[in-house]
Amino acid sequence: MKALRSSGWYVLFTAPLLFIFITVVVLPFIIGIGYAFFIWDGLPLNPKIWAGLSNFSRMAGDDRFLVSLGYTVLFTLFSIVFINILGLAFALVVTAKLKIRNIARTMLFAPYMIGGLILGYIWKFILGDAFKAIGETTGLSLIFFNWLLHPGAALAALSVVTTWQMAGYIMIIYITGIQSIPEEVIEAAHIDGAGFWATLLKIRFPLIMQAFTICLFLSLSSCFKIFDVNLSLTGGGPYNSTELFAMNIYHEIFFLNNYGYGQAKAIVFFVIIALVSAVQVSITKKREVEIK
Prior knowledge:
Layout: H1 2-35, E1 38-39, E2 49-50, H2 54-57, H3 63-94, H4 101-109, H5 116-138, H6 151-179, H7 183-191, H8 196-207, H9 209-225, H10 228-233, H11 245-254, H12 259-285
Antiparallel strand pairs: 1-2
Helix pairs in contact: 3-4, 3-6, 3-9, 4-6, 6-9, 9-12, 11-12
């Protein structure tokens, strides 16, 4: 009777969440797969024309799509490196014996709490008008100029803002990994004469590989899927130099009204993220060390 009552509570609390997940995620995903095989402009009264696999084969000759894929890969590679380096550095700082470590954690985590659209508009002012004014005032126009008007600088600006937003969140996961290392292991390394870098590279880093697996997965998937900051900060410009994968799909569907082709891109996008994430997790999992 007690087991039956517990299972009843389990169903009561999980059923609404399961219903929402199926309604909001699973069903639209399945319906979207069906749309990928049709030519359709999204208007309910207009007919859907069967296209077979032509929407998928069309991508091979879509220069804008391929360029967008290249920009996405470049942006993701740079961003995940800086996000994880900064996140780990922040974690090492705030786990040290500092009096202000709790305040530092709060301040470093705070950017992640700002919504992506708002964050993009804030940095749009900083990297645009504010940087231009600083450059004109100080004469340092090689550094302080409107980054958002130059293709290379605009992509770098997008990476800077994403790093600034996510580093604090990744820091929290690294903190958990660092605090799980037994203190006696670190003390034994210091007794044996290991310095800071030797302890970090030979002791700490191997023992937090599990946290590294999680952080790399989260930063990799987030950077590949980034849309809100991309939309509000650069809008894909200038000259489509920051039109990343998600924004390319958005433009294809909502500006060009190619719902079928846009949905085919979305499926390819999903497959790429799933494959890259699976490979990354399998590689980093093999390097994890268990503390016994």
